[in-house]
Every structure is written in C-alpha cells, then in structure tokens.
C-alpha cells in the first residue's frame, strides 16, 4: 500500500514534469532546423524516457525537425536542452502528419525488422522522413493505406526482434548522415 506521503511526492513530481514540459515546449517555438533535411516522426511513442533521448540524438545529428503524433507530455530533462533546439511539430493523428510531409515532398520510411530492404542498401533522399513506431504496439496506422511509405530494416544478428526505439532512431540518423556526406 502506498502511503499518503509517497502519493503526494509522486503527484508533486508529476506536476514538476508538466511544468518543465510546458516551459520547454514554449521555448521550442524558437528552435531552428538543423543542417540536414531529414525529420523523425514519433508515432504514438510512450512519453517517458525515449522521446527526450531521441530529441537529444536528433540535435546531435542536425535533424530538420521532429513530428510528434499523439504523444503525451514528457519530462524534457533527459534531452539535456535539445527539446528547445530541435523544432517540434505536434499532430493529433498520423494522417495529418503524413499529409504535411507529402506536401513537403519527403520520402517516407518506416522501420520493420522483417523488411527486405536494408537501410544501408537503400539510397536515402535528401528529404527523408523516418517514422518510429511504439516499441510494443508498432505503428498506429494501417500500412496498406499508405503505400508510399517504404519499409526498411536495420540488420540484426541476435535473437531480440527489435531494438530500443531511441537506439534505432540514432542508427537511422547516423546512416542518413553517412550517406549524405
């Protein structure tokens, strides 16, 4: 049983996270696009640890921006300030995000451990959008409704079927930058 005092501490921690999130989201309005023309789409990720870590890596790799699809407020502290530096675009649905990226002529890619195309064998266009799905639930959309999205795999040699989403995002960003050099 949780004591009243512990419950109060948890509530206060949650309130502090929300306050930090609102403050950093407001500062994000001043963020400028990175040196590369790739974007990440975070599709229904859990709001915890991975989202701010992806912002941190995206800032390091010079991302143009990050699109967040239906993601709850998260603690920006693990991003080490990157949430205010990488432009964030918030969407209520994947379809809204998809339509915007199509209008902006992005090549769209999603990760799938069973895809035939390996990321390092695929020529990534300058304007690439990488869709990262929820680790447990996958992507929020019906893949057949979006035939323009190409599936890519990151080669894996162990028994684990998938990588942590923040690690997979970093590998994708690294491969994109490597190809554009």
Description:
- This protein has one domain: Alpha/beta knot, CATH 3.40.1280.
- Helices cover 35% and strands 15% of the residues.
- α2 packs parallel to α4.
- The model has no long low-confidence stretch (mean pLDDT 94).
Structure at a glance:
By secondary structure, the chain is an alpha/beta fold. It contains 4 helices and 6 strands.
Share in β-strands: 15-25%
* Average predicted confidence as pLDDT: 94
Question: What is the succession of H and E elements?
Answer: HEHEEHEEEH
What is the count of structural domains?
Answer: 1
Shape: globular
Distance between the termini: 56 Å
Task: Walk across the major sheet and give the strand order.
Answer: 3-2-1-5-4-6
Q: Approximately how much helix is present in the residues?
A: 25-40%
Number of helices: 4
């Amino acid at each position: 049983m949780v004591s009243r005092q512990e419950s109060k501490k948890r509530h206060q921690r949650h309130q502090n996270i929300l306050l930090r999130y609102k403050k950093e989201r407001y500062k994000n309005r001043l963020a400028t696009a990175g040196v590369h023309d790739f974007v990440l789409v975070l599709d229904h990720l859990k709001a915890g640890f991975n989202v701010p870590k992806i912002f941190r890596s995206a800032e390091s790799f010079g991302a143009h921006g990050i699109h967040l699809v239906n993601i709850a407020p998260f603690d920006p502290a693990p991003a080490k300030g990157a949430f205010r530096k990488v432009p964030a675009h918030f969407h209520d649905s994947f379809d809204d995000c998809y339509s915007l990226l199509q209008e902006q002529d992005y090549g769209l890619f999603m990760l799938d451990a069973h895809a035939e195309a390996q990321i390092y064998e695929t020529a990534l266009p300058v304007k690439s959008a990488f869709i990262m799905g929820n680790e447990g639930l996958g992507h929020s959309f019906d893949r057949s409704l979006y035939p323009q999205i190409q599936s890519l795999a990151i080669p894996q040699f162990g028994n684990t079927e998938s990588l942590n989403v923040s690690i997979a995002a970093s590998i994708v960003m690294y491969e994109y930058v490597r190809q554009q050099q």
